[in-house]
Amino acid sequence: MKVEGLVAMVTGGGSGMGRDLVVQLAKAGCHVAFCDVSQAGIDETVKLAQATARKGIRVMGGKVDVTDREGLQRFAEEVVSKNNDKLHLLFANAGIASHGPLIHDANATAEQIASKEREWDRCFEIDFFGVLYTLRAFLPHIVRQDKGYVVVTSSVNGFWTWPEHSCYTAAKFGVRGLTESLLVETYAKAPHVQVACVHPGGVRTNIVRNSTFAKNKEGKTSDITGDFDKIAGLSSAEAAEWILDGVARDHTRILVGYDAVLWDKMNRLSPHGGYKVFGALGREGIAQWDPTRASENIVQAKKVSLLGWLRFLKDGGLFFLIFSAPATAMNLIRQLTGASASQVLTLSAILALVKLQRSSRSRI
């Protein structure tokens, strides 16, 4: 769908991908409304969008929390009233990162367990119900138009998961199910409205920095934020470009980043292979799954027995490390073996191709 001359709404537009969606839509000639919980973020987005927007393009921001159903309804009415009763595109983008397991550590205190349970509630309220409330508020206005597009942000965690991310994964799987259900409903009841589910991989935004698991026991930002920024494949501006390219191509499923594309292929080729790798990581003590101590986890890896590493690699760990976090894998293997970068690359390519070929022949 071409966005020029249309009216779009973006949630979570005060930072990250949401902000860049607003800026790029306005630059492409699309009138944009957006909401966020940060007034400072709203003001900055308006300033950036207006600086590059085409002449005559309207950009409006509002301070609205996606968990506020009445607030979303009021803002939806305001948006359409200021745009001649028009609203064609909705980007349900707002969300948070969360860290909530189902199995707690044996020495976890009652307060620690209660804290994680509260985090589950907060994650679902924003990441799942925030999307549902957004759809309820804005979808009726889009259905009334002659054409429309609803773009909902899930995550790679909407089709894949890893340890300690149970609540985030459950919410994002729910978002995917909600979006695909809407897709089927529009086919039957509103065929002029298109629907897409977005699955971003690693994107350098503040979502990890603002998460609870990015804080250590003293409440300070841990080293996981720096580690994440190093392995995240895209900037927020690049991620927005991927999303809008998917919209331009009328896609119903938009993978954002080459890592997301790869995770998707791995999931299709060997749905449980990656999960076995994570199990191997935990069993052999290669990772302690404490995201606030990411650097210590790498140090811990050096203390694992040779037999433990061999078992891990046998379970597909090398394939996983190479494809999911190339820089981390490269440094780790070089530290353990003393091999040169070119030697590691050559061996990695051979082993990865062999593993991929074997996986492609396995039953799903």
TrEMBL record:
According to the UniProt entry, its GO molecular function terms are:
oxidoreductase activity
Please name the Pfam families in this protein's record.
adh_short
Q: Which Gene3D superfamilies does the record match to this protein?
A: NAD(P)-binding Rossmann-like Domain (3.40.50.720)
Q: Which UniProt keywords apply?
A: Oxidoreductase
The record ties this protein, via SUPFAM superfamilies, to: NAD(P)-binding Rossmann-fold domains
Superkingdom assignment? Eukaryota
Does this entry carry the keyword Oxidoreductase? yes
Quote the InterPro entries the UniProt record gives: NAD(P)-bd_dom_sf, SDR_fam
PANTHER family, sorted: OXIDOREDUCTASE SADH-RELATED (PTHR43391:SF82), RETINOL DEHYDROGENASE-RELATED (PTHR43391)
Family (UniProt)? Belongs to the short-chain dehydrogenases/reductases (SDR) family.
Q: Could you tell me what this protein is called?
A: Dehydrogenase/reductase SDR family protein 7-like
Please report the organism this UniProt entry assigns to the protein: Hondaea fermentalgiana
